[in-house]
Design goal:
The protein has 59 residues and is of the alpha+beta class. Helices cover 46% and strands 17% of the residues. Strands 1-3-2 form a three-stranded antiparallel β-sheet.
Length: 59
């Protein structure tokens, strides 16, 4: 299967918690206030690696 350019896999909440050392509650709060936006597909929640890297760079 060919990969579509510009599409990157989404990270789960657990993966982002490990990378950023945030709690799940803080991660959810940061999504709600726009500091680290999540992508929702149905009931699933994911985070773009670019957004996570940008967030880490700001910290």
């Amino acid at each position: 299967m060919d990969k579509i350019k510009g599409i990157q896999p989404l990270l789960t909440r657990d993966e982002v918690v490990k990378i950023t050392n945030l709690s799940k509650c803080t991660l959810i709060r940061f999504d709600k206030d726009g500091r680290l936006p999540a992508v929702r597909i149905g009931r699933r929640v994911g985070y773009r690696m670019d957004d996570v890297n940008k967030f880490i760079g700001q910290a």
